């Protein structure tokens, strides 16, 4: 079996999996920028919104950062690699601002 992966035939966001007589390109984990294999522990670098923790790229909880990421009358909701701000209970979105209902 020729190891086609030795020539790095895959794209930057993929890793090469050598198979008998061939190879396939597999997508890197969403937490990675470039990777050497499957999973968040095989990242070359962590994607935006992720940080290296115990050799893995893990999600940063922006909602628990010391500085507030959302505006007044908004609640922070952590998402994978990011966050979103939603109007707090008793408030509704009026043209991008949360106003009391």
Automatic annotation (TrEMBL):
Q: Which SUPFAM superfamilies match?
A: EGF/Laminin
Signal peptide residues on this chain, from the entry's feature table: none
One of the Pfam families matching this protein, by short name? EGF_CA
Q: What is the lineage of its organism?
A: Eukaryota, Metazoa, Chordata, Craniata, Vertebrata
> What top-level branch of life does the organism fall under?
Eukaryota
Any GO molecular function: calcium ion binding
What Gene3D superfamilies does the entry give? Answer: Laminin
InterPro entries, per the entry? ECM_structural_protein (IPR050751), EGF (IPR000742), EGF-like_Ca-bd_dom (IPR001881), EGF-type_Asp/Asn_hydroxyl_site (IPR000152), EGF_Ca-bd_CS (IPR018097), Furin_repeat (IPR006212), NOTCH1_EGF-like (IPR049883)
Where the record annotates domain EGF-like, the positions are 59-97
The protein's name: CRE2A protein
Keywords attached to this entry: Disulfide bond, EGF-like domain, Repeat, Signal
